[in-house]
Amino acid sequence: MIDLRSDTVTTPTEKMRRSMFEAEVGDDVYQDDPTVNKLQELAAEKIGKEAALFVPSGTFGNQLAIFTHTLRGDEVIVPSSNHIFVHEVGAPAVISNVQLRTIDDPYGMPSIDKIAKAIRNEDIHNPRTGLICMENAHSSGKVIPIDYLENVHKLARKCSIPVHLDGARIFNAAIALNVDAKQIASSADSVMFCLSKGLSAPVGSILAGTKDFVAKARKGRKLMGGGMRQAGVLAAAGIIALNEMIDRLAEDHENAKLLANLLDEIPQIHVLKDQLDINMVFFSFNTIEPEIFVGKMLENGVKINPPHEGIYRFVTHKDISKEDIYTVVKIIKRIVKI
Asked: Where is the Aromatic amino acid beta-eliminating lyase/threonine aldolase domain (predicted)?
């Protein structure tokens, strides 16, 4: 089965499975799981932060960051297209008792002027602006330029507001921008990134920041049910992910561009060529009803998601080879009878 639904479907490597089996463990709530501690130290170094915390998922990490940075009743500024607003089940209202102030932008880059205007002043009627949230790489498949993030952070510092970066795919962004991930993370006070997407670990994400921030977040993690005890069994795979799986993300980007070029040769398909920065291919295809197309692809051994607002998304990852891409395109051509 060729699975193009997401890079969350990646399976752990044999080395990961072996390391999980052999992992030295302890009780991480007491901070004496040596494998978790090693992962956290490695993650902090990779991202250029003082400390890091292993958490169950990306959504958990983002919500823990909001919970740690804000006070009840605060307002959090976030672009309307960002994962925190679109795909995290309204969690800021439930967990942190904050409201989101969204700024419309399809690629997560509203103008600095719009962000500045969204920051609340001290009027008695206003909530406090407690946090600004950015996302890089963005879920649209685009990456956010370094200078833009620096300008957001400069504005936030001027107003004494922290910045959190949803960096679920920060290493994809770093490859696309040809920079070290540390440079991207330097424009945020806290950063979350996923181990379980393109890096292929089976479970887990990282939340990183200052030592004081992580100490506070650790208690919040416990409150949110994230004290995972002998979590070294999972952290072991994360260590392999950070040591061995980052550089190979470039292969996923190359495969995505190959897929986009091949799909673009099919007359019925329109590829969104301005959203090809990372490992995602977005396209419209209206010749066949979505449920029929998804069903026919599955009958031919290819898993895809239905379109969102008329746009399909295919995602390349470790388990998708160049041969798989040629196979997928042949299947589509057969379905549309080219």
From this structure: 3-283
Q: What angle do CA 193, 325, 330 make, to 5 degrees?
A: 150
Q: Which segments of 224-284 does DSSP mark as H helices, in order? A: 232-244, 249-264
For 217-231, write each residue's pLDDT tens digit: 999 999 999 999 999
pLDDT for position 334: 95
Residue 8: its pLDDT value, please? 97
% the chain with pLDDT above 70 = 100
To 10 degrees, what angle do helices 322-335 and 290-299 make?
130
Q: Is the four-CA dihedral 128, 134, 140, 142 of positive or negative sign?
A: positive
Tokens of 268: 């019925």
Give CA–CA dist 47/59, Å, rounded.
Answer: 19
CA geometry: angle 264, 169, 246, nearest 5 deg: 95
CA 242 – CA 246 distance, rounded (Å): 6
R_g of the chain, CA atoms, integer Å: 21
User: Does residue 104 contact residue 110 with C-beta atoms inside 8 Å?
Assistant: yes
Q: Which residue type is seen at 306? A: P
pLDDT at 286: 87
**Are 190 and 68 spatial neighbours (Cβ–Cβ below 8 Å)?**
yes
Would you state the structure tokens that stand for residue 251, as one six-digit string? 């292969």
All structural domains of the chain? 11-244 (3.40.640.10), 248-335 (3.90.1150.10)
Quick: pLDDT tens for 119-164.
999 999 999 999 999 999 999 999 999 999 999 999 999 999 999 9
Return the bridge partners of 163, or none.
132
What residue spans of the chain are helical by DSSP H?
14-22, 34-47, 58-69, 83-86, 91, 112-118, 146-158, 170-177, 181-185, 211-223, 232-244, 249-264, 290-299, 322-335
Q: What is the pLDDT of residues 73-109, one digit of tens each?
A: 999 999 999 999 999 999 999 999 999 999 999 999 9
